[in-house]
């Protein structure tokens, strides 16, 4: 006998899940991505430190698979995780020796503080993308297939705009070991002298790097996923399909973007962010001035430092993140459908 049992159905959007469920799916994907990708960057940084030791005040880029962070060396001793002693003969040798001498936990050194920024940024980015794509598909009519392109770009602009000031503050605290009160005074001073725009230093080059990649990534991902589903005669993508689509799309997009523009990360972003670690500086910190300085000191090749490591990390990071995210969405979608059926019987 059919009837309403009195239970309220789950309020869902056009994607079949709620925005909160999208956030949970992206959060779980972000954590898993970080767990898998971070060891690669820890080993890379340790190899860099072995080749060229980090002095006090030196900046280096740390990636947890979700976003890049500028880290500042705060002391001259060897107690910091990135200065731990050891001689490595390559990536595999470094993995083995680090685990053997320092324990497996050391492969995730430096991860917790970076997740404070990375997880919220990823949640904002993925949730906004799905919401924007659904809305744009309705409004773009015959051009609905291009919705992922625009949605990806807008979602990235939004997440970068929200996170940039927080990342700048994190770098400032790390470089000067400032208390929250001292940091507040420094921020107020910067805003008073340079205006609110000073809190978004590095925003420009970050957008130049991330927005084109994001637009191309989502467009290629949606196309690749749809083609694989059609090729395999299935309506819903499997975990393997989303994993392959994410890896291929990430690789193609990063190669296309980096071959069509100057390599803005990590060198330029590091220089811009490290500018805030100085107590006072009269030098210009504009993107153009920093680029000119890098070319003058290291040549044009200095703008392309870190090209290969970034390409290598992008494919697994994109594959893990998107497949976990899609798996989470599929789980919640099925859960909502079951609850809806239960509420109508």
From TrEMBL:
Family matches, as SUPFAM superfamilies: Mitochondrial carrier (SSF103506)
Main location: mitochondrion
Record GO cellular component, one term: mitochondrial inner membrane
Membrane-traversing stretches: none
Keywords attached to this entry: Membrane, Mitochondrion, Mitochondrion inner membrane, Repeat, Transmembrane, Transmembrane helix, Transport
Topology versus the membrane: Multi-pass membrane protein
GO biological process per UniProt: mitochondrial transmembrane transport
Pfam families in the cross-refs: Mito_carr (PF00153)
Family annotation (PROSITE patterns): PROKAR_LIPOPROTEIN, SOLCAR
Domain of life: Eukaryota
Catalytic activity entry: glutathione(in) = glutathione(out)
Location in the cell: Mitochondrion inner membrane
Keyword Transferase annotated: no
UniProt xrefs under InterPro entries: MCP_dom_sf (IPR023395), MCP_transmembrane (IPR018108), Mtm1-like (IPR045315)
Stretches forming Solcar repeats: 17-135, 143-227, 237-331
Family the UniProt entry places it in: Belongs to the mitochondrial carrier (TC 2.A.29) family.
Protein name: Solute carrier family 25 member 40
